Amino acid sequence: MVTTRGEKLYEGKAKILYATEDPHQVIQYFKDDATAFNAQKRGTIIGKGVCNNRIASRLFEWLAQRGVPTHFIKQLSDREMLVKRLEIIPLEVTMRNLTAGGMSRMLGIEEGIVLNPPVFEWHYKSDPLGDPLINDDHILALKLATPEELQTIRALSARVNDELKAYFAARGIDLVDFKLEFGRHRGTILLGDEISPDTCRFWEQGTKKKLDKDRFRRDLGDVEAAYQEMLTRVLGEGV
Ligand code: UDP
Question: pTM here?
């Protein structure tokens, strides 16, 4: 069946969701728009949408092959991915293998300290509140998810971390931390959203060069080149 783009369902900071002729499937369109610090900083990273779509498509495929259920169906074009429609759970999972960003700020510790075991965090997905750090009791009090769902999401997140850490290590990259989102689809929990340099911190092994959105957040320059470099690392030299 040919998938055609229907009405726009939702426009976020980096992606647009479109309906398809199948009510259980939607198209994720990846934009070049970039925001940081709860959208106080805005900009454009030329080619970012293409890189993120191709990187996320490859990573979702790879995770699915290893038994992680995801919303990914197939890549449709350079900027479009066909996915299963999810009822998004308003939680962001952060997994951390090295200290950086929010955790370093919150605890007043330097970046780059190895976290073993990895640190798991829940954040409440709310722009007005600035995605605050919350715990299981807050989630149950707000009825955002059931105890069984929390258990499933924790277990899946740990597996995703193990798989991705190994995937990137084999490509000369340390996976510092990343953010995941999950949703419900016909009674099961699936990994959703994207996995890309927008949602992960990647440090080149040896040099510790940042190859992710921190180059945009912190005005480090060479932002486009970093996304292209990650695309090459993920897909191999033949990109
Ligand atoms: N992250 C994200 N979206 C958010 C917040 C964080 O994708 O709204 C990612 C971020 O790129 C990093 C990880 O989650 O890889 C941890 O981010 P952190 O909590 O340190 O927040 P930040 O320093 O980005 O404010």
Answer: 0.97
The CATH number of whichever domain residue 118 belongs to comes to 3.30.470.20
Going by CA atoms, what residue is nearest to atom 19 of ligand 1? 102
Probe residue for ligand 1, chosen from 38, 55, 94 as the CB with the greatest number of ligand atoms within 8 Å: 94
Query: Which is it for the CA torsion 228, 238, 165, 158, positive or negative?
Result: positive
Q: Region 196-222: what's the mean pLDDT? A: 98
The string of pLDDT tens digits covering residues 123-149 is 999 999 999 999 999 999 999 999 999
Q: What is the CA radius of gyration of the chain?
A: 17
Using DSSP's 3-state secondary structure scheme, residue 212 falls into coil
Shared domain for 92 and 206, answered yes or no, is yes
Full DSSP string of 80-123: EEEEE--EE-SEEEEEEEE--HHHHHHHT--TT-EEEEEEEEEE
* Ligand 1 within 6 A of CB of 52: no
Give ∠ CA 206-178-161 in degrees, rounded to 5: 85
